[in-house]
Amino acid sequence: MLKDKRIILGITGSIAAYKSAYLIRLLVKKGAEVQVVITPAGKEFITPLTLSTLSRHPVISEFFSNRDGSWHSHVDLGLWADAMLIAPATAATIGKMANGIADNMLVTTYLSCKAPVFIAPAMDLDMFAHPTTQQNIDRLRSFGHHIIEPTEGELASALEGKGRMEEPEKIVTLLEHFFAASHTLQKKKILITAGPTYEKIDPVRFIGNYSSGKMGFALAETCARRGADVTLIAGPVSLSAKHPKIKRIDVESAEEMYQAAIKTFPEADAALLCAAVADYRPETSSADKIKRDDKDRMTLHLTANKDIAASLGALKREGQILAGFALETTDEIRHAQEKRKKKNLDFIVLNSLREPGAGFRTDTNKISILDKQGEITAYPLKSKQAVAEDIVNKLETLWI
Ligand code: C5P
Which of 266, 282, 333, 345 is 20 to 30 A from residue 369's alpha carbon, by CA? Predict the structure, then answer.
C-alpha cells in the first residue's frame, strides 16, 4: 500500500528522533519515497547525514539551501506529498502547527500541505498531559489530522508515563491501513446533504433548526478520504470542507437544497441524506421586515416543503444507493423503519434525541442502522468522525 507513496517525514527536537532512522528504513523498504524535513532542534538529536543516507534524498531544514538565493519551496513540497508524518512531534511543534506559527521549514511545509497529516507526539508525561498541549492536539484533531497516540512507559526524563512516541512498525502499519482504506470508494460519486435549512419569513427572520452539519461534513470527509468524488450540498453552517475531492454547493432553503439534489442525483452512485430539512416554509415571505405594531398575536401560514429523500427514492435507479437519517423521540425503531420504507431508502440511520451526547450540535453521536433486510445494528456512543466511518462501512457492504 505504500509503494510509490510520497511521504514528508517531519522530525523535531526530541530524543525519540533516533526512532526516525528506523521509520525511514521501514518506509523505504515498503517502496515509499521519503523526504525528510527537520527542525533546527531536531538536528541536535540526529544528523542529517544519517537521514539523507537512509531516505536517499537530501534532508531539508532551512528555508534557503545556501546563501546563493535558491530556496526550498515549501509550497511545491506540500503539494508533492501523499501524506505528511511528523514523528517525533514535540509540544513546541504541535503548538506551532495548531496556531500557524510558521517560523521554520517544517511548519511552513505543513501549512502548504494538502495531503493527510499524521502526528506522533513524543514528550515528557507532564508536558503531554498539560492542558495547553491537549488543547493544541484537540485543535489539530479538529482539522482532521490523525494523532498517533503516544504510549506509556519509561521516558527520557526517567519518569514513567504516557509520552513515548509510538513504535515505527506501528506507525507504518497505521499508514498502510490508511492508504488501503483510501481506495475503497475510488470512482464512486456520492451526494451528501448536510446542515439545517432556513425558511425565510422576512429579510431578517427565518424558520430553522439546531442542526450543525457536523455529521454530514464528517461523512463527506470520510467518503472523500476513501477516494469518492463527493458533492456536499450544505445548508447554512459554519463549517469548512477541507478535502479536495469534496465539491461543496451552499444552499439556504429546502427548495434550493431540493433543486441542487435533484440535479446531482442522476450522476450519483449513492446519496446520504443527512440534512435536517425544514418540513414547512412560510407560504409567503415578506419583502420588508414585518413590524410588531403592538399586535398581541401573529399567525404565520406554512406550506409543506418537498421531501428530498422521498423524491430521490422515487427516482432511484438500479444500483443506486440511498440512505437517510431519522431523529425520533418516541417509538424510534418503528418510526424509523416506516420512514425507510416510505422514502425507498436502502438504510436509515437512527439517532435518538433521548440519548445524552447524540443528535444536534454535539461532537458525538449514538446511532442504530436499520436496513432493507430488517437488520438493526446498534453502535455505542462515538465521535461523529467515528460514526461516519461506521455509516460508510455499511454503505460499502452494499457494493460488495
Ligand atoms: O421525515 P423526516 O424529516 O424525519 O426524515 C428524515 C430524513 O429525510 C433525513 O434523511 C432527511 O435528510 C430527509 N428529508 C429530506 N427532505 C425533507 C425532509 C427530510 O430529504 N423535506
Answer: 266
Residue among 367, 318, 368, 366 at smallest CA distance from 344: 318
Class of the domain covering 6-181? alpha beta
**141, 117 in Cβ contact below 8 A?**
no
Confidence of residue 71 (pLDDT cuts 50, 70, 90): low
* CA 282 to centroid of ligand 1, rounded, Å: 18
343 Cα–ligand 1 center, Å: 9
Residue to mutate, 191, 325, 331, 344, ligand 1, most ligand atoms under 8 Å from C-beta: 325
Give yes or no for residue 63 having a pLDDT over 70: yes
* pTM for the structure as a whole: 0.71
189-397: CATH class: alpha beta
Catalytic residues: 209
Same fold, 6-181 and 189-397: yes
The confidence score (pLDDT) of residue 287 equals: 95
User: What are the DSSP calls for 177-227, one per residue?
Assistant: HHHHHTTTTTT-EEEEEESB--EEEETTEEE-----SHHHHHHHHHHHHTT
Domain segments of the chain: what residues? 6-181, 189-397
Q: Which residues line ligand 1 (CB under 6 A)?
A: 193, 254, 273-275, 277, 305, 307-309, 324-326, 339
